[in-house]
Write a structure and sequence with these properties.
338 residues, alpha/beta, Rossmann fold, six-stranded parallel sheet, 44% helix
Length: 338
């Protein structure tokens, strides 16, 4: 069996959809970009029995988690299916939601001939849930197009800003960061700005608006940029004084790699995944000593120190890792076809 057809299902800006395209391009294999499940079924009807690789988060494949499992089970009845599981269920998302989504991911893995995840943390989560994983292929550092040169010559650092990057939702603890920035503003740091570098995830517009209002009510400044064009990422991420990537629950994160590609070392909370990333690229993260259960006032102290001296947040960007990502997928597919 040759390399499968990669399916990039969903809106082009969605992180999982974009990653599906990047993986196929890195491997030099065919990718089919499909806007929704209805279009997927119609398109694949014209390509019977063709093996496919799906990048799966349940929200893209069905209106409900069970609907997503049914979609993939139907595909697997007609053709070989490989999957990369994203947003792997974990207890931190809530016990009932985790149980419901775990059942669905178990069903999806059961009909797949190859199951890939993007971190050892996800591998551990799957093992605990009784989901068999064949291979771990870490997320790659992207190529931001000369990030090092742009970092040193193309960006004028903000005076005092705190930046959160990517799709914005409660899992990224935007509210906690906003409360910490508000604490600084209320204490007299009227130059501090919260920069939300992205757009709200679907359904979380009010959540993001509340974070902006929290900072404004304390006398600080906050801005929401909306989606940032790819050719502007290195410049925009280079401007921020203090990059922050706090997660309430994370199993793999492309945003950490994007910060790294821009030559930035974000402030992160301690978790199994951030410890794994620190081992993969020593010195690439700034680990806050604030427990995830602690209040924003504790985080404000870390932010104040880095706003006063942001040098630790700047590092030399690592080499992009897309070529190795492509090779890893080709190896996985070759093993699947034997």
């Amino acid at each position: 069996m040759s390399a499968p057809l990669t399916i990039a299902l969903g809106p082009p800006a969605h992180g999982v959809t974009r990653f599906a395209v990047e993986c196929a391009h890195a491997a030099g294999t065919e990718v089919l970009e499909v806007p929704d499940v209805v279009a997927l079924q119609d398109t694949l009807a014209a390509r019977p029995a063709v093996p496919v690789h799906l990048h799966v988060t349940d929200a893209l494949f069905g209106a409900t988690p069970d609907g997503a499992a049914e979609t993939i089970e139907a595909l697997a009845r007609d053709r070989p299916v490989a999957v990369t599981l994203h947003d792997v269920p974990q207890p931190a998302e809530g016990a009932e939601r985790c149980r419901r989504r775990t059942r669905v991911y178990r069903r999806i893995a059961a009909v797949a001939g190859l199951v890939v995840v993007s971190s050892e943390h996800e591998h551990h989560l799957c093992a605990d849930a009784g989901i068999a994983v064949d291979v771990v292929i870490p997320l790659a550092v992207p190529d931001l197009g000369g990030a090092a040169a742009r970092r040193t010559g193309g960006s004028t650092p903000d005076e005092r800003s705190v930046g959160v990057f990517g799709f914005l939702h409660p899992g990224k603890a935007v509210d906690v960061v906003a409360e910490a920035v508000a604490e600084l503003a209320a204490a007299g740091d009227d130059a501090v700005t919260l920069r939300l570098l992205g757009q709200p995830a679907d359904g979380h517009e009010d959540y993001v608006r509340a974070a902006v209002d929290t900072v404004g009510a304390a006398g600080g400044r906050a801005e929401l940029t909306g989606r940032i064009d790819d050719d502007e990422l290195a410049h925009v991420l280079g401007e921020v004084t203090v990059p922050v990537a706090l997660f309430r629950n994370v199993s793999a994160s492309g945003s950490l790699n994007t910060w790294a590609a821009a030559g930035r070392r974000p402030l992160v909370s301690d978790s199994e995944y951030t410890r794994e990333m620190h081992q993969r690229r020593p010195g690439s993260l700034l680990l806050t000593g604030v427990p995830r259960s602690a209040g924003a006032a504790d985080l404000a102290g870390d932010l104040r120190r880095l706003l006063d001296d942001p040098a630790p947040t700047r590092v030399e960007p690592p080499e992009p890792g897309l070529a190795e990502l492509g090779r890893a997928y080709l190896r996985a597919w070759a093993g699947w076809s034997k």
